[in-house]
Every structure is written in C-alpha cells, then in structure tokens.
C-alpha cells in the first residue's frame, strides 16, 4: 500500500520513448513541474501529451517542447507558448486542438471506462465535419487533418438537436500535482488545481503524483479527499523548496 518513491527521477524512470502522457494542471497552475523536469533529464522523447495547454516557453511542458521531446499534443489552448505555435505552424509538431470542456470530458470518460459520448459542442463546425489542421508540412500546406466524426440527432427535454460523438482519452502514464497526499496515494488538490489533475490521473494506466505535503495515512478526512488512492500508483514527496517553486503565468498589477 505504500506508494511513495524516493525521487521524481525514480518515479519516471520506466517511461519509454513514444509514451502517451496525460499531464494535469491549467496554465501553470497545478502542473507537475518536478516530474516534468525529471522527465526532461531522463532524455525520453517522441512523446504524445494530453494536457490543457503546453506551459510557457521556459516552464512546465514548454521545457519538453523546447527540447524537441514532444511529437504530438492534444490540447485546448496554445496562446501563452510562442514555441508551441512556431513548431505547429512549421510542421514540427502535430496538434489536436480540442474544445476545453470536451477535452475534460474525454479524459473523464477514459478514466471511467466509457468509450465515447455525445455532445453538442462542435456541431456544425470543423470539429464535427473534419478538416482541422493537425499537422502542417514545411511549405505550409496541411499534411494531416482531423477526420469527420459521427453526428446523430437526439431529443432532450422535448427538443431535437444534433450531437457529435467524441471518443474517450486514455494514456500510458499520468503526471499530476497535489497539495497534500498520503502514502496510500489519496490526494487533495488546492483550488483550481483540481480542474484537470483528477481527470488526467484517472485516465492514466500508471499515475504518478507529486505532492507538496506528504501527510500520515488516516489524517485526511475521507470527505475531503478529491482523488482516492486506488487511482494513484506512485507518490513523490516534494521538498519545501520544490513545493514553493511556482511560476505566475501572467502577472497583472494595478
């Protein structure tokens, strides 16, 4: 039951080239930055990443991107990372842009064993019809585009609407960050760090969590646990310095 490993390096040591990773966080909030650094140092490459975004140019997943370690990313947002946009437009990176709510539900479905679901989001657009550029060639032409998705009509509350079918997402590994956790892998997330972290954790076949504070087993109120330990395979306890090393994505002052 004790899932604590001694270091982030040990925790990610078996992640191979070509692995698919679901990575928690939103912007720079709640990202597993220590595990990402360990992954960078490991030299692993050819990764497919599922995450809300790809960090910024010098922090988070942006570090793996700068090093050329990411082959493909499924994300909702590009805006804060210039290298992300450059690689995508240059044909160096395959990008599946997905509506944010749909991405969250695809991860939740994957973690719940649900193969697919229907949503109104994207009906009447290229999300449903296909043709979204996933990868460009060096000359700027579209090399790979999204396929069309099944669309069906359902009646909800007496009204008929079209719905597009979206497939669930699962990953070989999930990397997440929690504010507190115990040795059994029970996790508590702080505020908005709770958005994508639990979803990514459940979608991973092997889930690795870095925790800012490791607490004794039994000290967490069961009603306060956001993610049960059955979902988590490895726990890395951060040092106080690692836990405090957080970046602000965009500082606004008045």
Automatic annotation (TrEMBL):
Transferase listed as a keyword: yes
Record bears the keyword Transferase: yes
Keywords assigned: Transferase
SMART domains reported for this sequence: CoA_trans
NCBIfam families: pcaI_scoA_fam
The name this protein goes by in its record: Succinyl-CoA--3-ketoacid-CoA transferase
Pfam entry (one): CoA_trans
PROSITE patterns: COA_TRANSF_1
Highest taxon, organism lineage: Bacteria
Family assignment from sequence similarity: Belongs to the 3-oxoacid CoA-transferase subunit A family.
GO molecular-function term, one example from the UniProt record: CoA-transferase activity
SUPFAM superfamilies assigned to the protein according to its UniProt record, in alphabetical order: NagB/RpiA/CoA transferase-like
